[in-house]
Amino acid sequence: MTKNVSGTALAAPFVRESSLAEALERRLSVEREFAEMGHSYRHGKLYRAFEHNVFRPVLKTGLELTGLYSRGLANALAPVVQDVALSFPNLPSGLNGFEILQLSDFHVDENPALADALLPFLAELRPDICLFTGDYRFEDQGSCEAVYPAMEKIVSAIRARYGIFGILGNHDAAEIAIRLEEMGIHMLVNESVEIGDGPNSLWLAGVDDPFDYRCADLPRALAGVPRDAFQVLLCHAPELYDEAERAGIDLYLSGHTHAGQIRLPLVGALRKNADCPREYAFGHWRHGNLQGYTSAGVGCSSLPVRFGCPPEIVRIELVRG
What we know:
Blueprint: E1 2-4, H1 20-23, H2 25-37, H3 45-65, H4 69-75, E2 80-88, E3 99-103, H5 114-124, E4 129-132, H6 147-156, E5 164-166, H7 174-182, E6 186-187, E7 191-195, E8 202-206, H8 218-222, E9 231-234, H9 241-246, E10 251-254, E11 263-264, E12 268-269, E13 283-287, E14 290-294, E15 312-320
Parallel strand pairs: 1-7, 2-15, 3-4, 4-5, 5-6, 8-9, 9-10, 10-14
Antiparallel strand pairs: 3-15, 7-8, 11-12, 13-14
């Protein structure tokens, strides 16, 4: 499914060929299946019991006993702006210097102070477009209501020429997409949209979560996109790297991994949490003709702590060359 965007600013929601509710039908079906099973595809009952009753309490106690927990809390509220310049020989000349702001893995309901920590940084940035790559909720089940006040605060601070576009992650319920669209975020659910006009435009495609919901449909998202167009893909996890490269995607933006969240000197992250090569789980990477960036995210999972891996606001400059 494709949509067209023109002009220099986007303030109103798109007029879809079909409704957002229809676009979310597959995800809603999976949600009902999860509710019946009592767990998701990847995170079974034993995993959840271990995560909540063993891993989190033990990790927190260990950090408290070593005096590191308070430092980890402070680290999680000290975001950095990561500037990245990426060169593409096929970038339309009119897009040289085009600036993308990427924010990922908010999990805002877990740490109420996060939104306020991000605001001073976001207020200073003026990107051409802002892209959210999923995971707004902390847990992968339960109420979403605490997500919305914090996200409204974050959205209100963003000034992007072509607006804000987003996708869902594996922690998100379908209702989040509906509420975010009401805030003015253009949610892409296996859809694509043309940004700009004529020869100096790019196509932005967004797929649903491939990690747990397994609802990503790249062929559907790219239906109607010219093969020779400059294409940017939003996918919550970096796992579709091979399919994206074969499809002719130029830039693949993802998150999900938190870059490990706790990174040790020399060793790096203890786990990559995605079915992809380790080097694709954080930062800039290449796969054939495809370039990708996997954000460390701005929020936290399991515990609201970070070590060796600050919350990351990613500012990407597209360069023709």
